[in-house]
């Protein structure tokens, strides 16, 4: 593929191929040196993991990595995203990772006949976060060796999460049994197509994967501000009591950053069944596989 903007357009076979490639990078079974390629990471929204793990992936692949700060760029003089990308392409950048608050920002760019650089979506508003989805899939596959018949719950701030939407759709397509839970006020009707709603107490007891979502305070408008931290954890979060009821083999996932004490009891972040830091580590290898697939 020339660009990587959504997982929805990829076949199951292509998704498995990316997961296998990411695992091969993790195990040192493949080694590539793309030293003739120039990469730039344009993050118009805040990020620690996605930004820095793309940079780590690019450096591990031997690429030349350039810095870009929106706050000191000509975006501040009114230059458009399109003209910014064309500028970077003109000076010789061939891989551009973009995170932007505008949903589907990449559609205009990749439909332009003038674009020759590769675009990777590092997150588009409340739309998609395909590199996060891939590292989540990689982490589940690495743990269980399959998606088929796994019971997977996605829990929390569903309507604001760009991770949840693509994950439920793809996990369902790969054969997992998907469940969702969270406050009724933050549900998105589209989840019903791919999974079944259940209360978190019931899901804690039966799932193989409890995938928690961050409460996205920054995207909440006044009507969404309906819980205190403590109320949210008690009603909808993973408390110690709920974790105690989980199956022995079950794992906890969270894309992070984590609101400790809101969607998850703080001690559980580093608990034995938490794969939160494994997800971050896998993110580097998943992103190496993505970069490899767009520039090779
Ligand atoms: N999971 C994730 O996207 O984290 P960042 O916002 O820090 O990149």
Automatic annotation (TrEMBL):
The record lists L-aspartate as bound by 77, 162, 214
Q: In which pathway does it act?
A: Pyrimidine metabolism; UMP biosynthesis via de novo pathway; (S)-dihydroorotate from bicarbonate: step 2/3
In the record, what terms sit under GO molecular function?
A: aspartate carbamoyltransferase activity
Q: Taxonomic lineage of this organism? A: Bacteria, Bacillati, Bacillota, Bacilli, Lactobacillales
* EC number(s) on file: 2.1.3.2
Give the family this protein belongs to, as stated in its UniProt record. Belongs to the aspartate/ornithine carbamoyltransferase superfamily. ATCase family.
Binding residues for carbamoyl phosphate, per the UniProt record?
49-50, 99, 129, 132, 256-257
EC primary class: transferase
Catalytic reactions on record: carbamoyl phosphate + L-aspartate = N-carbamoyl-L-aspartate + phosphate + H(+)
Protein name in UniProt: Aspartate carbamoyltransferase
Any idea what job this protein has?
Answer: Catalyzes the condensation of carbamoyl phosphate and aspartate to form carbamoyl aspartate and inorganic phosphate, the committed step in the de novo pyrimidine nucleotide biosynthesis pathway.
Q: Which gene encodes it?
A: pyrB
């Amino acid at each position: 593929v020339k660009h990587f903007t959504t997982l929805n357009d990829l076949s199951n076979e292509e998704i498995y191929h990316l997961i296998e490639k990411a695992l091969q990078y993790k195990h040192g079974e493949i080694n590539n040196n793309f030293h003739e390629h120039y990469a730039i990471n344009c993050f118009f929204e805040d990020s620690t993991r996605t930004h820095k793990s793309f940079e780590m992936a690019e450096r591990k692949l031997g690429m030349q990595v350039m810095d870009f700060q929106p706050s000191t760029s000509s975006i501040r003089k009114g230059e458009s995203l399109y003209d910014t990308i064309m500028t970077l392409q003109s000076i010789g950048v061939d891989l551009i990772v973009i995170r932007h608050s505008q949903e589907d920002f990449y559609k205009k760019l990749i439909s332009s006949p003038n674009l020759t650089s590769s675009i990777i979506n590092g997150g588009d508003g409340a739309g998609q976060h395909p590199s996060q989805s891939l590292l989540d899939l990689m982490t589940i596959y690495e743990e269980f060796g399959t998606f088929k018949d796994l019971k997977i719950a996605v829990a929390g701030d569903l309507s604001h999460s760009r991770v949840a939407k693509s994950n439920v759709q793809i996990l369902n397509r790969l054969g997992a049994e998907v469940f969702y839970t969270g406050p009724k006020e933050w549900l998105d009707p589209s989840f019903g197509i791919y999974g079944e709603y259940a209360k978190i107490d019931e899901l804690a007891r039966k799932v193989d994967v409890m995938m928690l979502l961050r409460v996205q305070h920054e995207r909440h408008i006044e009507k969404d501000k309906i819980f205190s931290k403590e109320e949210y954890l008690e009603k909808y979060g993973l408390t110690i009591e709920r974790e105690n009821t989980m199956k022995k083999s079950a794992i906890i996932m969270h894309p992070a950053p984590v609101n400790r004490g809101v969607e998850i009891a703080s001690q559980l972040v580093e608990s034995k069944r938490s794969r939160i830091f494994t997800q971050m580590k896998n993110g580097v290898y998943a992103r190496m596989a993505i970069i490899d697939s767009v520039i090779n």
